[in-house]
């Protein structure tokens, strides 16, 4: 380790040839290890919660503890695991990938300490019963002032981390170390811009609540809080989206040698996020009082669909880039020969492709559907909502992050991947678990089962409940959800063993074995030969798959309107 | 001529070239689909659907709303169940109050009649989730969610609170009986 924190302490990566700033490397390892610890914690809670929501098992017999753990699970997973990991990604994209040193490593450490203390404080208040208010903490539900204070500390720490990244990118540009950013770093820049808005919105939501609990102000408007909170709550997921898509692109390049078929189009799709996606975060409050129909329509149609277009562009360009690269290597057989030739045994590739498909097909389509104003009525606060975001944030973002670590962590700590056989199996097992989980939870939500609910059998209230959720279809769905959760948490534990094992006890190796990586991903080979568009389609297999995806999207969209029309009430 | 570069390397030369055939076709499909969803939500469903979401909302002092609900119950109460008043609601305004941990009153409605539900909360946020039909609205203290509802079919409907409201959240229920 470095003796001189001010000096330019560096090494050259023997695999990629990148110049690695050792201070950046240390910060990345600290952030990434913290992230994985929160993943382990949140995953443990996930299993307890899922097994409680399956009425046959109803594992946690104390309602108060169930609600505490649901809140802590949300905070640990949705905020701490993902944001610590993203900060590691920002540090990587802002220094190592550009072969430059961090401009202000102390800023990185300041952010890390604030985020660490804030996250521990939030977790402590939630587990000790001072903040049994869920991750959303809607006022006038009350938590202790310490909870809001720690949330603010965390949010400001995350803001410092984002600003630190921007400082790095801007100085790199000013010092002429970079002109056009690599697409991966560009995606991180988009994520950082979205994060600025998001964290400011979150701070504006939490600060009044903090002052209210300190007694400085006597009232927080609950509707205004919801608007500002969701600017953070959903906005943070758009940050994850941008970071995840950046990782898809990066892993497509690393494992398949993909080069975006049209750099401009891919960047345009990211710019659509910056311009429009935040304005769509209103879909959490589509069935709230206090908003005009005009505001709802504007956010659910114009702005959201502009951002959806961005995602659908990536949904095409990423596989198309992989197809073109594989065809250039000679895998030209039929429509899908390129896909057969893909490195399915490379865990980073498997994680990327499963994340990509599950995010798009399950998470993306469900999100667009429930983001429709009228359709939101049959989804709001049912289990469909967490089913949707577990497909985006867990099957999508988390699995993509796992895939990235299968390559980055060995390179970073210069150790061989620990238990590579587990790593090969892990993405498939995780994907299978999340698939069953998502289908089970989504169906239960479709049948009307509420989210965040300890006991849907209402044993002391049978005169009123009329056995509303006693149907066999509901119980089967929830059993499927519990089974899926068990498989996914097992696979998550395998990931943690592999990741932690690599960092701490993996065999030291300057050229760690990370499976097959395309040299063209990191070494400019041919000086960017000009593109020759063929007469027909360049990526016919992808066109076929993408069209199939669109047809499925249209069918599910149509089916959802049919379901809404079956509601036996006229609602005006 | 444009160039292509790995996503991990800075692109060199001119990378902002025109779209190829594949991208043009896909982009056209995507724009068409986004427009189709827009037209469906903003024009088609508002014209043909029976389930709209154009409800009004008002600000209200929770104490005032509680008083209005109490007055409403006093005028129309016909019984109680589990200490919750039951009301035979005449067509027109219906008051429904969410409070930890029940919905008050329980409602008897007539099939095919139209009611203007005025829903609010006296304490924290609640969820108005009508089961087994499954449609859901948010209930926020200080605001009235005013929505016009017409039951098309007779039967018993549960109102489940689906916004976490405290340690007894899983006990919070209401009921609507619709008779022919």
**Distance linking N and C termini of chain B:** 73 Å
CATH class value of the domain at 343-516 and 538-563 in chain A: Mainly Alpha
Tell me the structural class of chain A.
mainly alpha
Tell me the CATH superfamily of the largest domain in chain B: Cupredoxins -  blue copper proteins
What's the CATH topology name of the domain at 343-516 and 538-563 in chain A?
Cytochrome C Oxidase, Chain A
Biggest sheet layout of chain B: 7 strands, mixed
**Helix proportion of chain B:** 10-25%
Q: Classify the oligomer.
A: heterodimer
Protein described:
The complex is a heterodimer of chains A (572) and B (180). Chain A has 572 residues and is mainly α. Chain A has a domain at 343-516 and 538-563: Cytochrome C Oxidase, Chain A. In chain A, 67% of the residues lie in helices and 2% in strands. Chain A has helices at 22-53, 63-94, 105-127, 145-174, 183-214, 222-256, 263-277, 293-328, 337-340, 347-370, 384-413, 420-446, 462-465, 472-505, 540-565, and strands at 10-12, 19-21, 569-571. Chain A has a two-stranded antiparallel ribbon. In chain A, helix 1 (22-53) runs antiparallel to helix 14 and helix 11 (384-413) packs parallel to helix 14. The relative contact order of chain A is 0.10. Chain B folds into two domains: 19-49; 56-179, Immunoglobulin-like. Helix content of chain B is 24%, strand content 39%. Chain B is built from two helices and twelve strands. Chain B has a seven-stranded mixed β-sheet. In chain B, strands 1-10-7-4-5 form a five-stranded mixed β-sheet, with helices on one face. In chain B, 46% of the residues are buried. Chains A and B meet through helix 2, helix 6, helix 7, helix 8 and helix 13 of A and helix 1, strand 8, strand 9, strand 10 and strand 11 of B.
């Amino acid at each position: 380790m470095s003796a001189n924190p001010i000096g330019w302490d560096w090494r050259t990566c023997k695999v990629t040839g990148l110049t690695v700033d050792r201070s950046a490397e240390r910060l990345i390892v600290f952030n990434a290890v913290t992230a994985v610890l929160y993943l382990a914690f949140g995953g443990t809670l996930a299993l307890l919660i899922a097994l409680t929501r399956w009425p046959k098992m109803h594992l946690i017999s104390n309602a108060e503890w169930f609600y505490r753990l649901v809140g802590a699970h949300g905070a640990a997973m949705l905020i701490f695991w993902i944001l610590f990991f993203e900060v590691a990604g920002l540090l990587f994209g802002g220094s190592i990938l550009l072969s430059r040193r961090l401009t202000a490593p102390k800023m990185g450490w300041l952010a890390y300490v604030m985020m660490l203390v804030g996250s521990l404080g939030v977790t402590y208040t939630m587990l000790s019963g001072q903040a049994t208010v869920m991750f959303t903490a809607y006022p006038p539900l009350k938590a202790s002032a310490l909870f809001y204070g720690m949330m603010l500390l965390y949010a400001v720490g995350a803001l410092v981390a984002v600003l630190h990244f921007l400082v790095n990118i801007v100085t790199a540009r000013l010092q002429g170390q970079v002109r056009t950013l690599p697409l991966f770093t560009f995606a991180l820049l988009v994520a950082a811009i979205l994060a600025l808005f998001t964290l400011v919105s979150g701070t504006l939501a939490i600060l009044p609540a903090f002052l209210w609990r300190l007694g400085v102000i006597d009232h927080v408007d609950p509707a205004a809080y919801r608007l500002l909170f969701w600017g953070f709550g959903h906005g943070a997921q758009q940050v994850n989206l941008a970071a995840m898509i950046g990782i898809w692109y990066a892993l497509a390049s690393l494992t398949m040698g993909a080069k975006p078929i049209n750099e401009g189009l891919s960047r345009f799709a990211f710019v659509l996020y910056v311009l429009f996606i935040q304005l769509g975060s209103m879909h959490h409050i589509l069935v709230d009082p206090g908003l005009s129909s005009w505001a709802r329509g504007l956010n659910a149609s114009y702005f959201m669909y502009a951002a959806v277009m961005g995602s659908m562009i990536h949904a095409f360009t990423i596989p198309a880039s992989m197809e073109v690269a594989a065809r250039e290597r000679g895998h030209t057989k039929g429509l899908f020969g390129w896909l057969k030739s893909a490195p399915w045994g490379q865990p980073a590739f498997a994680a990327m492709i499963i994340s990509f498909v599950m995010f798009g097909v399950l998470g993306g389509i469900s999100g667009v559907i429930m983001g429709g104003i009228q359709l939101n009525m049959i989804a709001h606060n049912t289990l469909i909502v967490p089913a949707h975001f577990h497909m985006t944030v867990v099957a999508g973002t988390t699995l993509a992050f796992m895939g990235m670590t299968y390559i980055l962590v060995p390179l970073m700590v210069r150790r061989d991947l620990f238990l590579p056989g587990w790593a090969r199996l892990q993405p498939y097992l995780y994907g299978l678990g999340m698939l069953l989980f998502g289908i089970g939870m989504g169906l239960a939500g479709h049948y009307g089962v509420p989210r965040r609910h300890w006991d849907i059998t209402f044993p002391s209230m049978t005169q009123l409940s009329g056995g509303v959720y006693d149907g066999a279809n509901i119980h089967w769905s929830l059993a499927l959800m519990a089974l899926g959760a068990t498989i996914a948490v097992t696979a998550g534990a395998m990931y943690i063993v592999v990741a932690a094992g690599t960092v701490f006890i993996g065999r030291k190796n300057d050229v760690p074995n990370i499976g097959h990586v395309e040299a063209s991903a990191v070494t400019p080979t041919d000086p960017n030969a000009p593109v020759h568009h063929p007469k027909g389609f360049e990526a016919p297999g992808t066109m076929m798959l993408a069209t199939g995806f669109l047809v499925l999207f249209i069918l599910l969209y149509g089916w959802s309107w049919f379901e809404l029309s079956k509601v036996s009430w006229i609602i005006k | 001529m444009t160039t292509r570069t790995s996503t991990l390397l800075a692109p060199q030369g001119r990378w902002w070239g025109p779209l190829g055939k594949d991208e043009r076709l896909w982009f056209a499909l995507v724009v068409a689909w986004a427009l189709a969803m827009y037209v469906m939500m903003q024009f088609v469903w508002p014209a043909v659907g029976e389930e709209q979401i154009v409800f009004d909302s008002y600000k209200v002092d929770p104490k005032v709303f509680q008083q209005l609900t109490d007055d409403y119950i006093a005028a129309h109460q016909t019984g109680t169940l589990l200490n919750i008043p039951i009301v035979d609601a005449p067509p027109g305004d219906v008051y429904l109050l969410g409070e930890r941990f029940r919905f008050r009153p329980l409602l008897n409605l007539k099939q095919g009649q139209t009611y203007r539900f005025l829903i609010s909360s006296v304490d924290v946020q609640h969820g108005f989730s009508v089961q087994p039909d499954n449609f859901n609205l948010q209930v926020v203290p200080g605001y009235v969610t005013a929505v016009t509802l017409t039951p098309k079919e007779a039967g018993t409907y549960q109102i489940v609170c689906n916004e976490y409201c405290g340690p007894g959240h899983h006990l919070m229920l209401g009921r609507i009986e619709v008779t022919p």
